[in-house]
Amino acid sequence: MADNSVIERAKEHFGGLVEQQLERVERLKQAPAPTDYSKISPIVIGMLGGDGIGPTITYESQRVLEQLLDDEVKSGKVQFRNIEGLTIENRAAKLQSIPDDVLAEIKECHVTLKGPTHTPEKGDGWPNIESANVSMRKALDLFANVRPVRIPAENIDWTFFRENTEDMYALGSNGINITDDLAMDFRVITTQGSRRIIDAAFAHAKKTGKERVTIVTKANIVKTTDGKFLDIAREVAENYPGISWDAWYIDIMTAKLIDTARRSDFQVLALPNMYGDILTDEAAQIQGGVGTAGSANIGTTSAMFEAIHGSAPRMVTEGRAQYADPSSMIRAGAMLLEHIGFPEVAEKVNMALDVCGQYERKAVTTGRNTGATTGEFGDYVVDTVSDSGLKSKWEGYVYAN
Ligand code: IPM
Ligand code: MG
Fold it and tell me: pTM for the whole thing?
């Protein structure tokens, strides 16, 4: 017979979480209208370097953005702002995943470009504070994690819409060791949270002329939460009669991404947070590695752009930080440009990265001294993006056969 006080303690813990989440649902029902950047001047872009390889790769992206937005900075339409203090040293000293003063500065910006930050895990010597990414996504309600992967030569053009505030992440730091032997974590999926990410995926498909949205769950096993995600997809799909949709389970989906005969059929994918975390690393690897993929964290009133990978502490301890690929942060910069209303400039950056990283490859980063340094690759992208013949060069490669 279980000790009653153990059960009571667990119930109380669970009750507190339910209360918090019900309050959150009420807040979600009152979502503000999305920001219209065309009406804002100046648009303030905050830059946060992060940890490990973060500052170096973020700097290369900043260079590209500053070069391309030079006129806008001069005319006062755009302003860059450096924000210090989102480092593991400062976060550990303050025992806060995002120190209050840093969060206040972030909130004063319309969008941020953020280098990867170290996520403490049990036993690594840092206090076990929550991941800065996860905190920022929650604090600013950045619900849509948009992760594109494109390989023109293979006709791959995927856009993942990963839900960014719920699932195992919502209460990832609030699990409970009920006894020494029994540990429980909690998974949260809401109607509102599911609807907004699935709707964003369908809206993106419609806007970009895509015909298909794929929903990924494990609803055959995780019946209640994934079941809800799928039910909401069914409802949202009815509002988009021109777009077909289908549902896949996460296990077979990971297999299909490496099925070269089928994978280019997928276009826009929407999925809960954790499956999205895993599947987008796989997709990025297919594109050339996690170092090549950028990520947008979009909310209604704020947005943060980052690499999809971490701060690579192993590269730093092995003395290889200066060989990190900055492509991920430059791709993130392109997404930032598109988000604040410069889609043509963003497309130029993407073309330059396709040319530099996938076709011409005059400088290649390998993550070690066998390849180009971060700065050398950055120079290469800066030169390529400002080449007036970029578009025809890109078309030459992409339509070559
Ligand atoms: C990502 C990362 C983060 C996540 C980590 C660093 C917390 O893996 O952005 O995919 O799990 O979301
Ligand atoms: Mg990840």
Answer: 0.94
